[in-house]
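ok so for the tutorial part 2 we go from a plain amino acid sequence to predicted structure tokens. step 1 is just haveing the sequence, like this:
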Amino acid sequence: MARPRKFDEQQVLRSATETFWTSGFAATSLDDLMRTTGLGKGSLYGAFGDKQALFQRVLDGYCADAAAGLRERLSGPESSSAARIRTLFDMMVAAASGSSGPPRACLLAKSTAELAATNADVAARAQQTFATIADLLQAEVESAQAAGDIPADRNARRTAHHLLAVLRGMEALTEAGMDESVLRDAADAALMAVGLRPEGQ
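step 2 — the prediction. this is what the tokens look like for a chain of 201 residues:
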């Protein structure tokens, strides 16, 4: 009969996430994971498999949370899809003016840059996550079109892909410490390009 686990699996995953996020996959050793999670090698392997399997659990969880966070963000409280899209871009601009400095790189972006070319599972998870984000953006675009806020003749899927690409680019610029004015210009140009004028214009 298998022994019941005597640790909090979610806490272990949170600790492992922090470790991989800080150091990346290649630079994180088994000793690092044992130290930060408080588990021995046998417990780690028994519960999660090898380092690659644990990393995949971490990345899957991070991506699921990211998609859920965007879904929640796009569910309100603004009164229209147009306003929610504007707010999403405003939040990206605001991140550039954070008092604690630029945020660290998104774990998905960091993992994709490090591993996607050589790890099919990581590449597939990244593609799935970006497709989910594009789906969420497309639904908002279509809702804004129905309300007359985005021209009806715009291809909603292509517009969603445009917004996704700009958002990811803005994130990279923010992580590089670019001035807030650069992010504001990018956001305003993206909104106008899809037919949404920035508020006040």
